[in-house]
Structure formats: C-alpha cells, structure tokens
C-alpha cells in the first residue's frame, strides 16, 4: 500500500465516515450529514468534514435510549438531548509491514451467526469495544473454544479502501497469558495480507500497554482523533 496516497490518507483520517460512505454503504443509515450502522450491528457513527456534520440529522437516526460511538475529527457538539458516556481520544495504528505474523500452535474455528450468543457473553466479560447481535456481518471472525466454551476471538470491522480493521480481540480472564489473542490476531492479519489488504486498528489513546503490544506485532501509530460515546436521553 502506498501511504503517500493523499486520498487514502484523507479517508483514514475519518475512518467511520469513509467506511460508511463506501465499503459499508449498503449497511449505512443516514445520508450526506451523518451515517451510522444499524444499532443491532454497531453504535459507530461517522460525520463528513468539519462544518458539514449535523446533530439534527443524527437525532433523526437515534431513538431515545439508543447510543452512538462517534469516531473521527468532525464530531459535532451534542445537545442536551444526549448524555456523554465516554469522551476520549482514539489512536489509529496501521501495519505497513507485509511480513506474516506467527499464528501460534492453537486450533481456531470460524465464528458466525450460531456463535453470536457466546461472542456477546465473551464481549460482556472482557469489553474489547462495541459488539452487537449483527456485528458478525462486518467481516470474518475466528475464535478458540475449550471444552465447547468460547475463550478468545478476533475479527474484522471497518473497511477503508484496501485497509481492513482488526477488531473484537478479546480473551477470557481464565486463559490469559497463553498467547491466544496474539495467535488469533496473527491469523486475522495474515488473512488480510493474503487478500492484498493493509491491516489497521483502533485503541484508546491512553492504553499504553495495548499500544506497545500492537507495536510488537508491527503496527505503527498513524493518527489520533476524538471518540465520543453518547446516549440519547430525550
């Protein structure tokens, strides 16, 4: 991938909007001023360039009690109809290195619709980021089961040009330090590389431990922008 591409750089600088306006446009709700995934897929929402975003357009898409995760540089100020759950910065990391990662000596399985209940239970326990009933529609997910129990998983989420986001990486507390997350991340990344894609991911900007882990896997910190998780209360 040529990171000198001005257009690709611009798209990655506003990944949620870029994805919802292109690769995932068939899933997107909204239009020129805001786009979001259906709430049972993801709370993620994206806005166009600064000055074009619209809170009114957002409120037309979000019911009272529903929440959104606004990602990107042009998140507008919300009205008193909203309650802020989390406001922080998000680091975007990208893997330009085309060398494959080790995949570990573990057996992984493909995860799909029949695994959603187990995936939701693991997410509830580990909190890797938003995951909903239909999130599996965003890409391919793989996991590790022990005695039938799902104990680790990883997969794909946003898709910008030929850049694919690694997401949903989590491990049950009972099996940590066995290298499961690293093995699954390696398999997801290597699948992307074989498809000619460039892996990227997002992590809370203050999570130094996770950032260093991803650095060790060849990811480089590329950008940082706001993340706003808010719930509509009226």
Describe the structure in your own words:
23% of the residues lie in helices and 32% in strands. It has 234 residues and is of the alpha+beta class. It folds into two domains: 6-90 and 227-232, Gcn5-related N-acetyltransferase (GNAT) (Aminopeptidase, 3-Layer(aba) Sandwich), CATH 3.40.630.30; 93-223, Gcn5-related N-acetyltransferase (GNAT) (Aminopeptidase), CATH 3.40.630. It has an eleven-stranded mixed sheet. β2 (35-36) and β3 (44-46) form a beta hairpin. The protein starts with 5 loop residues before the first helix and ends with a strand. The relative contact order is 0.21. The mean pLDDT is 95.
Short structural description:
With 234 residues, this protein is an alpha+beta fold.
Shape: globular
CATH topology grouping of the largest domain: Aminopeptidase
**Poorly predicted segments:** none
Oligomeric state, counting identical vs distinct chains: single chain
Number of strands: 11
| CATH architectural group of the largest domain | 3-Layer(aba) Sandwich
Helical fraction: 10-25%
The ordered H/E elements are HHEEEHEEEHEEEHEHE
SS element count, helices: 6
Q: Main sheet? A: 11 strands, mixed
Task: Give the radius of gyration.
Answer: 17 Å
Termini separation? 45 Å
């Amino acid at each position: 991938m040529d990171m000198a591409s001005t257009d690709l750089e611009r798209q990655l600088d506003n990944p949620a909007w870029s994805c919802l306006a292109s690769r995932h446009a068939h899933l997107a709700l909204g239009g020129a001023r805001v786009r979001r995934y259906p709430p049972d897929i993801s709370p993620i929402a994206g806005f166009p360039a600064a000055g074009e975003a619209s809170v009114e357009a957002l409120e037309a898409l979000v019911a009272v009690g529903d929440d959104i995760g606004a990602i990107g540089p042009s998140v507008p100020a919300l009205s008193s109809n909203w309650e802020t759950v989390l406001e922080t910065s998000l680091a975007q990391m990208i893997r330009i290195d085309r060398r494959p990662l080790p995949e570990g000596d573990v057996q992984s399985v493909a995860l799909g619709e029949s695994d959603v209940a187990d995936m939701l239970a693991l997410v509830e326990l580990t909190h890797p980021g938003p995951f909903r009933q239909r999130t599996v529609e965003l890409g391919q997910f793989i996991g590790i089961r022990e005695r039938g129990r799902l104990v680790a998983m990883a997969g794909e989420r946003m898709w910008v040009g030929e850049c694919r986001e690694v997401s949903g990486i989590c491990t049950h507390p009972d099996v940590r330090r066995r290298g499961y997350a690293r093995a699954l991340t390696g398999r997801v990344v290597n699948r992307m590389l074989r498809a000619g894609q460039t892996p990227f991911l997002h992590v809370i900007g203050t999570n130094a431990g996770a950032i260093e882990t991803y650095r060790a896997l060849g990811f480089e910190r590329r950008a940082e922008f706001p993340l706003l998780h808010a719930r509509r209360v009226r």
